[in-house]
Amino acid sequence: MKFRGKIMDPNCIHHFSNVVNTISKLVKTCIMRITEDKVFFILSERVNDGGAQIWCELPQSHFFDEFAMEGVSAESNEIYLEVAPDLLVRSLRTAHSAKWVKVKLTKKNFPCLTIEVDLPSGSVHQRLVIHDIPVSVVARKHWPDFTEPEMPRFDVSIAMPQMRLLKNVVDKMKNLSNYVSLSANNSGEMKVSVETDMASISTHFQNLFNPSWNKDNTQTQAPMSQDRDPQEFATSRVDIRRFAQFLNSQQVNPDRVICNVVHHRMLHFFLLHDDVSLQYFLPVVSR
Amino acid sequence: MLSTQRSDDDDQYMLVACLDNVRNVSTILKAIHFKDTATVFASPMGLKITVEDAKCVQANAFIQEAIFHHYVIKEEQLAFKINLTVLLECLTIFGSSSMPSGNTSLKMCYAGYGCPLILMLEEEGVLTDCNIKTLEPDDVLDFDFCSSNVINKIIMKSECLKEVFSELDVTSDILQILMSPDHPYLQFSTFGNAGSTHSSFPKDSEMVESFQCSQTQTNRYKISLLKPSVKALALSTRISIRTDDRGFLSLQYMIQTEDGQICFVEYYCSPDEEVDHNEES
Predict the structure, then answer these.
(1) What is the value of pTM for the model shown?
(2) From the CA atom positions of chain A, what is the Rg in Å?
(3) Is residue B96 a contact partner of residue B33, using CB atoms and an 8 Å limit?
(4) What are B's interface residues with A at a Cβ cutoff of 8 A?
(5) ipTM of the complex, rounded to two decimals
C-alpha cells in the first residue's frame, strides 16, 4: 500500500485545511479513504451512538500537484485509514505560509500519515517540519461499513438560511433543550423550535430557496412536480448539540447549504464548495 | 416592521408592550439576574421586575412605560412569577448584546392570570415566537424603606465604585459600609484571609454629587448577597447609597439604555444579623 501527494498551491493548501478543519469540528475520528481520483472523509456511526453519517468527497486533482497511490490490491485499488482529523488540522496549521505540503503514508513503529511542510525560514533557507500522525489501516473486510449512504427520499428540500442568525438562535436554544425540531416546506419556509416544560420557542425563516432535484440527484432549476401541498411542513427532531456543531463547523460560506427533510426520519445536509461536497446525515432522536 | 399580528388580535391581551431594541430591556434584566425566578409587576407606569434571595436581599428593575413605543395595559396591576433565566435566553435569542449588528424588536403580550408570557422578536425579517409559562406570584418582601427613616444618603458617580466593588475580597464574609458626617465620610471595608481592606471617599471628592449624612453608621452586609449588585453598578452612571435607622441598605442605580433612556435598578439588603449596627469604626 502506498500513498504520496504534494500540494503546492497556497490556495489549495488553505482550502484543504478548511475542509479538514470542518471535519474535525464534527467528529473525533473518521475514515479517510483514498482512491485514484478522490479523497474521502467518512463517518458511519453506530445506531447506539446516534447513527449520524458524514460523507465528504474531494477530487484529488483539485488539490494535489502530485498524487500517487497503490491500494490494498489491484482489484481493490483503495486505501482506508482511521484518523483523528484534529491531528491533521494541527499539523496543517503550520502550513499556511508553506511552499508545499506533502502527505504520505508511512510506517514508523506503526502506520502513520506523515505531513511534511516546507516553510520559509529567513530569506534564503527553508525549514522542513514533519508531523507523524498515527493512523490505523482499515481491513478490506470492513470496507462495506463505509459505503456512500444513499440520498434519502426527502419530503422537502430547502436552502438553509443565513448561518449567523441561525447559529446564534440554536446556540441559545441549546441552553434550554437537548433536542431541536427543524421543519420546512416547499414555500421557502423553515422553522427551528424547542419545547420544554417551561417554554416553547420557535424561529421562522422565510423566502428560502427550494431547490429541485433531477432523478439522478443533480440539481435543476425546473420547478418540482407539486403533488405535495407547498404549505405542508416536514419535520425532524434531532440532537441539538449535533445540529449546533454542524452549524458551527462551517468555516467558509459555501455557495449554498441544502437541507433535505425526511419527515420524522432524518435531516440530510448537503453542501458544495469549490468541487468539495459534504453530506451530513442526522437521524431523528427517538422519543 | 414588526410581526404580522394585527391590533385586533391584541384585544385578547391584558398587556401589550413593544419596543424597537430588545437590548433596552435585556440589559436591565441581566443586572438583577442572580436567581432563576423573578416576579413581574405590570402597571400603567411600566414594569417592575423583582428578584430576591434568602429573605435578605431584593433587587428591583424598573422599566417605565416610556421605554416602550407602544404600551397598553388593561388592569391597574398584573403580577406573575416567571423563570428569569429562560426569559433572558428568549430576549437574547438572536445573540448576546456584544455584536449589535442589527436591531431586534420585541413585542410582549400577556393575556392574564394563568396565561403564558408571549414574546415576539424580530431581526432582519426573521421572527422568533416564545411562549413562557407563568407561575403564581409569591409575596415579595417589603423592606419598608422610606425616606423619613433614612439616616445617611450619598449620591455618587458610579465610576469610582466600580473598581471597589469588582475587587471585593471574596474571602471576606462581609462588606462593611461606614457613612459619617465626619472623616472618613464613606468607607468600604472587607476582612479576609489576607487582612482587611478599606476604601474611602472624602465627601468633597468630585465623584460625590450629594452628601447628606447626619450620623455615623457602620453596617455590615453579607458579601454574597451584595455581589450580584456589581452587575447593576457596572451598567450605571450614578448610584445612591442610603441606610436607614435599622441599618438596612438601599442602593439605587441610574442606568442609561443604548437609546439614551434612563432606567433604575435598586438593591435592598438587610444588615448581617450577627453584628450590632451603629458600631464605632
Answers:
(1) 0.88
(2) 21
(3) no
(4) 83, 86, 89-90, 92-95, 116, 123-133
(5) 0.85
